[in-house]
Write a structure and sequence with these properties.
Blueprint lengths: L2 H16 L1 H8 L1 H11 L8 E7 L4 H12 L3 E6 L3 H9 L5 E5 L3 H7 L5 E4 L4 H29 L24 H32 L1 H6 L5 H30 L8 H25 L3 H18 L11 H7 L3 H15 L7 H26 L1
Parallel strand pairs: 1-2, 1-3
Antiparallel strand pairs: 3-4
Helix pairs in contact: 1-10, 3-8, 8-10, 8-11, 8-12, 8-14, 10-11, 11-12, 11-14, 11-15, 14-15
Amino acid sequence: MNSRLFSLIRKEFIQIWRDPRTLALILVMPIVQLFLLGYAATTDVKNISLAVWDQSQTPQSRAFLDAFRSANYFRIAYSVGSQAEYRMLIETGKARAALIIPPDYANRLQEGNAQVSMVLDGSDATVGGTALSTARLIGQSYATKVLTEQLALTGRSATITPPVEVRTQVWYNPDLISAYFNIPGVIGMILSFITALLTATAVVRERERGTIEQLIVTPIRSWELIVGKILPYVMLAFVDVLEVLIIGHWWFKVPVRGDLGLILLLSGLFVLSSLGIGLFASTVANTQQEAMLTVMFTMLPSIFLSGFFFPLDAMPKFLQIVSYAVPLRYYLVIIRALLLKGVGVDALQNEIIALTIFAVVIMGAAALRFRKRLD
């Protein structure tokens, strides 16, 4: 590394160190995003507040309610005595569901045709869907248990063999913990957002302060100026990657099954495309605010069309086609496969090729435009 490039990189690190806001954005923001998405952006809905109208008040009805308590998905928060009461609780949002046990529940249970009712708040589709599927599973499980006990009491075989048995296996994430899916995505979000934003604002900041002209008249070549400006943010991006990996593995127990060197190598490949976006934004913006808006204009489609929040298979065909132009789409596949599945390069060839093309095209075009503007 020649002395001119080293001096420029050193200058950039000094500027970052003297700017507490930039330093906080680089080091603190990834941790904030990690905990927010690890805890808030989750589909593991539990402790759904439940209102119960037990009109039977028998040991049988209490045993049925115990089945709901033990599932940990419902929290019996209210005991009501009328339809108006549980309607009011659902309308005000205090209860997400209401379980109604009829007066003749115990007698009908002995006859084998007992029925209970559940009213669900469908205004929140995620909570409502989870409550619906969980209530059905609890009901089926409890019905099987009761039938087994009744058969045992009559002296018949207590073994019930269904005509069809479906045995399921869940690989890589047996407990279906959503943090295992979200936290690897946070790495992609951090790399794409921070590197692009900071690269764009760092270059524009030089132009706003008038120091870019001072750099141009020095013996520093154009490529040295480009590398010197972006290399510090590449280093800091890898610090963020390691930061999220360590905290995600230690706090959220996210497995790291892939090779760490391969994770960092492919992360660096993705960083090149993000740096290209930031460098390109710096050529079309004259102020830091314009640079931030330009980067945000590219980040929002990336967030929604990469599969970070919403599955691509659920999107319209047109949006699925558009998503192929989003580099983050390919990186999320790579980082999740490396962390959760522990696969190698062979399983990720298509994604690696796509990221390589994006890195060369975006970074090349941005660098050429940046050099042209300097000239």
